[in-house]
Amino acid sequence: MPPAPIDELDELPPPRALPLRRRCSKRGCRGTARPGGRYCRPCATAATRAWRDRHRARLTERERARNWSDEQRAVRTARAYVAVYVRRGKLAKGRCAVCNDPDVQPTWRDPKRPLDMEWFCPQHAVERREAADAGARESAALRAVNEEVKAALALLPPEVQRELHEQAMRGLLVRRAGDMMYWWNLRRALQGYEIRTSGGGFFL
Ligand SMILES: [Zn+2]
Ligand SMILES: [Zn+2]
Q1: How far is the CA of 29 from the centre of ligand 2 (A)?
Q2: Alpha carbons 51 and 43: distance in angstroms, whole number
Q3: Which helix (H) or strand (E) holds 117?
Q4: 160 with 173: CB under 8 angstroms?
Q5: For residues 148 and 167, what is the distance between their CA atoms, to the nearest angstrom?
Q6: Cα 15 to middle of ligand 1, angstroms
Q7: Do 90 and 46 reside in the same domain of the chain?
């Protein structure tokens, strides 16, 4: 049979709406399922909420993971690594290195080396972390000062640089160029030079 001409199709009555009413699948609910869903709207909302509640911990974790720094990520990996080792009996859980408490967590200096860790109770782990952070801040401040000294030194004639370097190396407690006491002495030498040559200096 040849297809009907277009204008004839236009004459067709609109399709009758089927009485397609699906019941909500929730036991005891008499509502109508949402199009494409198993539940009515209130039941669907409740089901989503229940699912979220059941998986809240994992969801929060995932949300947090999005904002993690590399360091935090490394710590998590290390923690998982150690947990597996402990579970398989390849690693004995220690006691807190400070107070001998058996309730411990592993703590890393470098989480990229997961088995190189120390055990601390929660309290001492926090103290340890705070001390490490303070240490990092301090060495950052020290580096900033060193950069300042370096920059000031670079503006001086090479023979003066050499002289100040040698002066710093002769200082007490300097073991090698670039150690902490070297920088301390270099800074002093530089201050002395500034005072000698200009009657004042910018490090005072
Ligand atoms: Zn329902
Ligand atoms: Zn402790």
Answers
A1: 55
A2: 12
A3: strand 117-120
A4: no
A5: 18
A6: 29
A7: no
Asked if the structure places residue 109 within a domain, the reply is yes
Give residue 115 CA to ligand 2 midpoint distance, Å. 20
For residue 66, give the DSSP letter.
Answer: T
Residue 152, SS3 per DSSP: helix
Span 75-124, pLDDT tens digits: 889 999 999 999 999 999 999 999 999 999 998 888 899 989 999 998 99
d(CA 81, ligand 2 centre) in Å: 22
How many domains would you assign to the chain? 3
Calculate the alpha carbon distances from 119 to 75, 94, 103, 107, 113 in Å.
14, 6, 9, 6, 14
Residue 3 binned pLDDT confidence (cut-offs 50, 70, 90)? low
Amino acid at 191: Q
What the block records as the tokens of 88 is 């398989």
Regarding whether 118 and 60 lie in a shared domain, the answer is no
